[in-house]
Here is the input.
Amino acid sequence: MIYKSNLQKFYQEKIVPSLIKKFGYNSIMEVPKLKKIVVHQGVGSSVLDKKIIDHSMNEITNITGQKAIFCYSKHDESGFKLRKGMPIGVKVTLRRVKMYEFLERLIVVSLPRVRDFNGVKKSSFDNHGNYNMGIVEQLIYPEINIDKIKKNMGMNITFVTSAKKNEEAQSLLSLFGIPFKKNK
Here is the structure.
């Protein structure tokens, strides 16, 4: 028997029929689905400090449950004291079960811990059905030990879907439980 997370079962049992009813798809294969989630953290001005980059890698690995990889600079930039091949960020690409488990922890545990949280912006969709979300500080994740934080850094989370339109992607993500801001 293949293990499925709660959100994966919820997608197959509730979200797919709901989207078929809302958008009138002819086949189950037309229903948009979540392909992958990319978590990226740029270290910015801390490029010269190797300890901060390593600490950032450990944090992202702990948050996502999957080993993070370095992102390297592609060219020299003298204004930022940056040379080609220097690590400038950390990223993880989550797929399948780990993706659904990360999404569930994000929705249920992490987002409610954001200070003065009113929901995420609806304007962060690109025109291909993908959604980008920024997190200001990594303290919202319970996997992070507050005493060991060297520098407070945020991260970007990208949800890549198979939706053709932003409206379909927004419906998919809101049915998963991502709290979008209400229009006033």
